[in-house]
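Most newcomers find our protein records easier to grasp once they have seen one. Each record describes a single protein and holds just a pair of labelled lines. A learned vocabulary of local backbone shapes supplies the integers on the structure line. Nothing more is needed to start thinking about how sequence determines fold. The record below serves as our worked example for the rest of this section.
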Amino acid sequence: METGFIDLHVHSTCSDGTFTPSELVHEARRHSIYAFALTDHDCIDGIKEAQEETLRLNSPDAPEVIAGVELSCELDDREIHMVGLYINPDDKVFNDKLNAFRSSRTDRNRLMVDKLQQEAHFAIDYDSLIREFPDAVITRAHIARYLVNHGLAKDMNAVFSKYIGDDCPYYVDRPKITPQEGISLIHHAGGLAILAHPVLYRMNADRLDALVQTLVEESHLDGIEAVYSSYQLGDEQNIKKLAQKYHLLISGGSDFHGSNKPYISMGNGTRHMPIPYYILSDIKNALHCR
């Protein structure tokens, strides 16, 4: 179905999305999406469920589920995300590193909840948070959702802008790997490393160019997310030129999170931005040629 559409950046309840992995399969089918990548934050727990659900459907319109991940990296105090596509979810080194990420994330979340309880006087504790989201890798989105669900905040945007967003009073940082380490980890798991949503890093053109050049020359970056929900047409064109300059694959995704980002729809983002199948075809060809 090489005339179909795809979405290579999607989140489930295993990180900070609100659709289960199985529900994402049906959402993709509803939107006539040929393939999607499950790219939960520092987590691959939902891949098996999603892939089994698409097999269970046993239907020509059941979407391909691509094993993916979105790694949180840091460079010069700036958070950078690296998407991995077609990773091996059984790779031991990869899993050990993700478990370490999860441990550091848990420690950070506990500290953040304690600060909200003790300093901001919110009626929240970590055990209650876990009970409300029992199968999730807890993120700041879950903390925000908890406060909203219990009538302690107006909406999630308010929680992030006032309390737990970057540089807010109750935000707690956590250790992150470098983008180069993220690329290496994805490659070790057999995947392709894609620089996620580069426009969101608020770099000027020269600095972004220098970052991409460094990642290509030092770590063999494979691709860049040139189609993305919040991009304007000029953004997309600029990133595609950058991809062409450094011979990078083009990727694209909605960054779908369900009701945690209700303005984004799967496969379309915030606007009508269908991602054509040829992008995935190029990615598959590159993978097979390695």
Remarks:
- The longest helix spans residues 92-118.
- The first strand starts at residue 5 and ends at 10.
